[in-house]
Design brief:
By secondary structure, the chain is α+β, with helices and mostly antiparallel strands. The protein has eight helices and seven strands; from the N terminus they run βααβααααββαβββα. A five-stranded mixed sheet has the order 3-4-7-5-6. A two-stranded antiparallel ribbon has the order 1-2. Strand 3 and strand 4 form a beta hairpin. Helix 2 packs across helix 3 and helix 4 runs parallel beside helix 7. The longest helix has 19 residues. The chain starts with 5 loop residues before the first strand and ends in a 24-residue tail after the last helix. The C terminus is likely disordered.
C-alpha cells in the first residue's frame, strides 16, 4: 500500500480546523508541520494525503493538550448531520437501510480507508481498513473514525443505547473518551484499521435523527465540481432539537441525477 495515497478532498480536514481555531489554536503552525501550508485548503477539491491529515489532527490534539480532540470533534460533526452521507440519509428509513448505502457513499468521497459491513444474526461489524501505511501517529485518527460510528449508533438507538455491549478494535485506543465507549469494550489489535461491533437488533431502528442536511449538489472524490457548490455543501445547517417535529428528511434523493 502506498504511503502517499490521496486521502480525499481537503473537506475532511475542515471540521478539525474549525474546532481547533475556535479553541484558540494557531492553524498556521499545524498546517506547516503537516506540510499543508502551501495547499489551498479553502478549496475542498484539493487532495491531501492520509499522513498529512493524521499529522494535522495529532498536532491539534497536542497543542490543545486534549487527548480526546479527534473523537470530540467527530462527535459534534455527526450530531450536526454528516454531509458526506447526505444521499444515503435522504432515502433511508432504518439503520439497516442506511448503513450499506452510507458505506458505498463514503467510498466515493475518500480513498484512504475502505469501509465494509458484516451483518450476522447476533452482531453487526463496521470495519474500516486503511489503504495506506501511516508513518505518523494514528491515535487521533482512529478515535475520530470510531467516534463517527458510535455517535451515529448512540443517536439512532437513543434511550436504549448501551455502550457496554459494543466491541471496539483499533491499533490505538487512547484517544477514545471513556464516556463514549467504556474501556472494557476496547480491544487493541495490530491491524491497519478500526472496527465497531454492535447488536444486529439495532439495525431495525428507525432512522429518525435531528439532521437537516443541505440539498445542493456536491463534488465526489473521483469527479469535479464548482468550488462554490462544494463550499456550500460543507456548511452545516444548525438544528434546534426543541423545534424538531416529525421527519425533516426528504423522501426522495436530495441531489440532482447525473
Amino acid at each position: 500500500m502506498s504511503q502517499g495515497i490521496a486521502f480525499n478532498r481537503a473537506a475532511q480536514l475542515h471540521p478539525f480546523l474549525k474546532a481547533f481555531e475556535s479553541r484558540g489554536g494557531i492553524v498556521g503552525h499545524v498546517l506547516e508541520a503537516a506540510g499543508l501550508e502551501h495547499f489551498d485548503l479553502s478549496d475542498p477539491t484539493t487532495l491531501i494525503t492520509g499522513n498529512s491529515l493524521y499529522r494535522a489532527v495529532h498536532d491539534m490534539s497536542d497543542a490543545l493538550d486534549d487527548p480526546f480532540f479527534g473523537a470530540r470533534t467527530a462527535e459534534e460533526f455527526v450530531k450536526a448531520g454528516p454531509i458526506f452521507v447526505r444521499e444515503s440519509y435522504a432515502v433511508s428509513h432504518t439503520v439497516a437501510e442506511f448503513l450499506p448505502l452510507a458505506i458505498l457513499e463514503l467510498d466515493e468521497q475518500i480513498s484512504s480507508i475502505r469501509y465494509s459491513l458484516q451483518i450476522g444474526p447476533e452482531v453487526t461489524v463496521i470495519r474500516g481498513q486503511r489503504q495506506f501505511n501511516p508513518i505518523v501517529p494514528v491515535v487521533q485518527a482512529d478515535a475520530a473514525a470510531i467516534s463517527l460510528w458510535v455517535t451515529f449508533l448512540r443517536m439512532a438507538v437513543a434511550k436504549d443505547f448501551d455502550p457496554s455491549v459494543l466491541l471496539i478494535t483499533a491499533q490505538k485506543v487512547e484517544g477514545i473518551p471513556p464516556d463514549l465507549v467504556p474501556k472494557s469494550s476496547h480491544l487493541k489489535q495490530r491491524w491497519n484499521g478500526i472496527s465497531v461491533t454492535f447488536p444486529s437488533e439495532w439495525l431495525r431502528r428507525p432512522l429518525d435523527l435531528v439532521w437537516q442536511i443541505p440539498s445542493n449538489s456536491r463534488g465526489k472524490f473521483r469527479g469535479t465540481s464548482p468550488r462554490e457548490a462544494i463550499l456550500t455543501f460543507l456548511v452545516p445547517i444548525p438544528v434546534d432539537p426543541a423545534s424538531h417535529s416529525g421527519d425533516i428528511r426528504p423522501r426522495v434523493p436530495a441531489y440532482p441525477a447525473t
